[in-house]
Amino acid sequence: GSLDLQKLSPTTRITLYNFWDLLAFLANSAVFLLLGLEINIARLAENLPVVVLAVVAILLSRAVVVYSMTWISSRVSDPIPMRYRHVMFWGGLRGAVSLALALSLTVPGTEQLRTMTFGVVLFTLLVQGLTIEPLIKRLGLAKISRSAEQQRQLAQLMMLRASRRELDTLQEDGLLAQPTWQAITDMTEEHMQSVLHNHPELERTVLVEARQDLLRAKRNALAEALHLSVISEEVYREQLGQLDRQLLIWERFGEYADRPWHTGSVAETRGE
What we know:
The protein is mostly helical. The chain has helices at 10-38, 41-46, 48-76, 82-90, 96-103, 110-138, 146-172, 178-198, 201-227, 233-253, 263-270.
């Protein structure tokens, strides 16, 4: 059966990833060592014209496949920018799989095929492999988009907020001593302030999320009051309607929710 990695502990997941990375590295090393024992460098120089021909054939075939398939894909779905097509074409690196297949051949001309394969792999690793990064930078694909960076920082803030709530829970339950709680809380708050200072645009997002969290907490408290018969169902529905309207406003208009111009739009959304 399949193993759900998300159910494993972080330590176990990291250990598994490291184990398989090491195993892949050893397998690749073994293939290259075996090929090194089989290939004669002098013969590689003798077969250089054939190797060059093989490299050209590989590049042409990949160009035909990549540009034709991406052209078709762009016609039936979201278009693929030409810059990405160039990277897909030049990023066709070949390594251990090609070498392993060449080593397994037993047909006539095997030695020449192995030499050609070694030459092609050497070209892709040394030429394409060393130039792919400059190509990506030249095409402007190495820049992290503003939205992606904001999402990373927002994720940091959400994790810090969750850790702060967990700290408060542990302290309230008596599982964390006051000095320890204070020290960790101060570090967490300092980290949060640093993130907000470096990315002030996130403060508005945090404000919107905080207001939504408060409204949801009010809804939960209102439901608890009805469950305990503290309030009547009529009062519950009246207050719940007001909270739902406020929550809808914040979900739709975010930081602009405090402005009066959106009231009509919300009423239209609710069919009022």
